[in-house]
Amino acid sequence: MTAVRLVVFADLHLGTKKAPGLRWAYEALSEATRRSPDVVVFAGDLLDKKKAVEADLADGVALFRHITEDLNLPLVHVWGNHDVGSGLLPRFPDLPGVHRPSGEGIEEIRVPGIPLVFHAVNVIRDPDPRDLLENLPRVEEPGHIGILHSEVEGQYTKNPCLPTTLEHLLSRGYGACLLGHVHTPVVLNEDPWIGWVGMGKMLELQVPPLP
Ligand SMILES: [Mn+2]
């Protein structure tokens, strides 16, 4: 494998009419998977904390199952502040092929058959001002990817969420840092790609694999 193909989205906010919604997600995934990606990443806020109800939780589970079962792709994701704030997460099941941090800290996630290491953190409260990302491991080899639901230097958000800085993210040596939380698509750094995917955007990215 000379490059790993990622499809990345974030901030779906199921339940609110202000988001592009489930139909958008299915169509955008269908379009993006025509180019044979290896793995799907979701960077948090599947559910809207104010509007999501039980049916939206079921929609989120069905979407994740669609990715792993119909599209036959592994999914790596983190929870965002809206997911936590919805109160619905205790009823979200573990699904085969869906990978996320299991605890409260930074975790390394490896997916069978995918030559990458994902460094991922769940948001655990809303807001989540923990100064945790200073402990993101620094690497010297290709194939490491950050998945974070974060603010960067307080830009574009008033809601403290796993704060970090661009300088710090760049210093980790990752092949990409895929961010959720800010709804406008913002590229903070082109190469390696660091930025917010944004709401209603399906990002396609190729990254070098582990040696
Ligand atoms: Mn958020």
TrEMBL record:
Domain (Calcineurin-like phosphoesterase): residue spans on this chain: 5-185
InterPro entries: Calcineurin-like_PHP (IPR004843), DNA_Repair-Maintenance_Comp (IPR050535), Metallo-depent_PP-like (IPR029052)
GO molecular function, one term: hydrolase activity
Protein name: Calcineurin-like phosphoesterase superfamily domain protein
Gene source species: Corynebacterium comes
